[in-house]
Write a structure and sequence with these properties.
Two copies of one chain form a homodimer.
Chain A (H helix, E strand, L loop, with lengths): L2 H27 L5 H21 L3 H17 L6 H8 L2 H9 L35 E10 L9 E5 L20 E5 L5 E7 L4 E2 L5 H9 L4 E2 L2 E7 L6 E7 L18 E2 L2 E2 L10 E4 L2 E3 L5
Helix pairs in contact in A: 1-2
């Protein structure tokens, strides 16, 4: 047997042995009573084993990976969810949003860690922020179904950070629910609210996930955005962002949240616009009927 | 468009959207400077996204998964490594051993969490346990290369649990390094040592990984075994087990560690065997040259 053949035989023997292990494991989980859990475990085990087998994962790499995951788990507490951050940074969160997005509706993107339920209900046109929070901006548009029919009484749950890059819950100098508000569309499906122009902000890199950025030459900034959950009775809610076409990170968002269709122009206000705002953004939202 | 077509279009749109996210994420990690890390991340991201996309992982399932991983990380401490246990229970540890096994050598299997470096060196034939640890057993054989040439001076690092199912480090009633010892082969490659017949024992199910067993109708017992790391200068070390052909869990080991070639008969001692042992096991080990 030549050296080359010996090497090929070695790869093949290890591959056959690995394939046997995978088959044995899948067989052991085949008795899982819940159909959906069995489907998830079968796919998970196949992909997990596929990753290790196709890369020839070494024992040292395997252990380093488990130690990394352990550190991620141990970084989590009441204020911080490092595993969601890891999911964000590997693009899994964005993928899950995309996979579950209703077809034909405004595109979905990540919820992020800063959502709070229970934001105050506001009148159309009202501001959710304070003058010191940033450049005054009017955002307005319509919520419709896929045929363009106005959806009256649709809710827009809005939240964003101030111009210091911090959300209210990160910043003791902001009052509770600052830069948060819920708006309800009128009879024509129209809405409008005042806020500030959003800014880019960094995701936390003082934990284990910070290592991922450092080792992969990636920056850790999120493209500037306003969050929105748009919902209406009988329709599927959409969790989305309003991105700013002038932002430098739209092409390299740290958590892969940007969708081309969600980028909008923050147009400098002109003589025909309300005098109290510096920018105007026109954003329409489209919802699709609830399933079943 | 019929309902069926609409449904097909919806699946397709979500799939296209998901594929775009995966492509964007892979592109973002393409600048990872270290070649091996880039290879690992590319495969990991592809499989992670593949799992979520092909199962249509819901937001609720995604969150439940991250909460489970968080709990696994938080269960880890100086005494316990729940992530290694999870890897064991999903068969990943066994797969990694199989993938890295030297071809032609005695088959490898999992190291497990109970290995301690620094076990005492013992004379050939000596016992590593006490009478109260179980049924006295003589294990003996030869260490050779693949051609059957004796390997003199090879080391066998041996450890196992007592008949109560506990390793020394789990059991305050056992002295330190009980049922552990290092033996060195003689000029003929031969070795022998006395120990006790191993018993089955449960893996810990009081942590998050216990849920995996409960939800999948799997038992949590390891097939009885003696651990061995066999090494010799100039050869690749093998981490392996000696399994007992009489054990009921050989076909369903909780961590998928059993390989058919590692199952041996614990033969009742006869008139020709040493009078102080109840069982005799003949086990030969084969090593392959170190690479490079």
């Amino acid at each position: 047997m030549t050296d080359e053949n010996a090497s090929a035989a070695q790869i093949s023997a290890a591959q056959i042995s690995a394939a046997k292990v995978t088959a044995e494991v899948l067989e052991a989980f085949a008795g899982t009573p819940d159909d959906r859990l069995r489907e998830l475990l079968t796919s998970l085990i196949s992909h997990l084993h596929g990753f290790a087998a196709e890369t020839g994962l070494t024992t040292r790499e395997w252990l380093a990976g488990l130690e990394f995951l352990t550190a991620v788990g141990q970084k989590c507490d009441d204020q911080r969810q490092e595993f969601i951050l890891l999911s964000d940074v590997l693009g899994l969160s964005s993928l899950v949003e995309a996979t579950n997005a209703p077809a034909g509706a405004t595109e979905s993107t990540v919820l992020g860690p800063f959502y709070l339920p229970g934001a105050p209900h506001k009148q159309l046109g009202e501001s959710i922020g304070r003058p010191q929070d940033g450049a005054a901006t009017l955002i307005r548009g319509r919520v419709t179904d896929v045929d363009g029919t106005a959806l009256a009484g649709a809710a827009l749950d809005i939240w964003q950070c101030a111009s210091n890059g911090l959300y209210d819950i990160q910043d003791p100098d902001q009052p509770p629910f600052n830069l948060r508000g819920i708006f309800t569309t009128g009879a024509d499906g129209g809405y409008s609210f005042r806020t500030v122009r959003p800014v880019s902000y960094p995701v936390p890199v003082d934990g284990p996930v910070g290592t991922v950025f450092r080792l992969t030459n990636r920056h850790h900034w999120r493209a500037a955005h306003v969050h929105a959950i748009v919902s209406a009775a009988g329709y599927q809610a959409v969790t989305t962002h309003i991105f700013d076409s002038g932002n430098e990170y739209n092409g390299s968002d740290a958590v892969f949240g940007v969708r081309g269709s969600l980028i909008h122009e923050f147009r400098p206000a002109g003589p025909a616009d309300p005098p109290d705002v510096a920018y105007v953004v026109d954003v329409d939202f489209v919802l699709t009927p609830a399933v079943g």
